Automatic annotation (TrEMBL):
Name of the protein in question: dTDP-4-dehydrorhamnose 3,5-epimerase
Coiled-coil features, chain-numbered ranges: none
Any one GO CC term of the record: cytosol
Molecular function GO labels: dTDP-4-dehydrorhamnose 3,5-epimerase activity
PANTHER family in the record: DTDP-6-DEOXY-D-GLUCOSE-3,5 EPIMERASE (PTHR21047), THYMIDINE DIPHOSPHO-4-KETO-RHAMNOSE 3,5-EPIMERASE (PTHR21047:SF2)
Biological processes annotated in GO: polysaccharide biosynthetic process
Origin: domain of life: Archaea
Residues at the site labelled Participates in a stacking interaction with the thymidine ring of dTDP-4-oxo-6-deoxyglucose: 114
Region Disordered, annotated ranges: 121-141
UniProt xrefs under Gene3D superfamilies: Jelly Rolls
Length: 141
């Protein structure tokens, strides 16, 4: 499992305390099959995903040179059937796909405000060969 990537129940951190204060809230509504991937944040932003409606498959890939988990890929399935909060280290590539037969609602609590003039985002296509995730592969729940 990636260092610092965590999945927690009941919308709390493993300690029961909020360890990263959210700067704002993003609400995303996606129909089944929609993929939003891949991106990362190199200036310190961490993301926190919750899916209260529908289901999503989340991918987190670590390609950090100095990381003991370099090259590891984690996938998580969360949603109304499996209410969890996923803490995503911002400097790891991450993305998600809405799965199932109804729209998914994703709530993201990032730790940094979005800077429109100098966004902390690097993006690559969802189907890149750089990350070994097949979005069409059935999720492991």
């Amino acid at each position: 499992m990636l260092t610092n990537a965590a999945i927690s129940s009941k919308y709390s951190e493993p300690t029961g305390r909020v360890q990263h204060r959210p700067s704002h809230v993003l609400l995303l509504h996606d129909y089944p099959g929609i993929i939003r991937a891949w991106h990362r944040h190199l200036e310190g932003q961490n993301d926190h995903f919750v899916c209260p409606q529908g289901r999503i498959k989340v991918g987190v890939y670590d390609d950090r040179d100095d990381s003991p988990t370099q090259g590891e890929l984690n996938t998580f399935v969360i949603g109304e059937h499996n209410q969890k909060l996923i803490h995503i280290p911002g400097d790891c590539w991450h993305g998600f796909k809405a799965i199932g037969d109804k729209p998914a609602l994703l709530i993201n609590y990032p730790t940094e405000l979005y800077d429109y003039e100098n966004p902390d985002e690097e993006r690559i296509p969802y189907d890149t060969d750089k990350i070994p995730l097949d979005w069409e592969e059935p999720p492991h729940e």
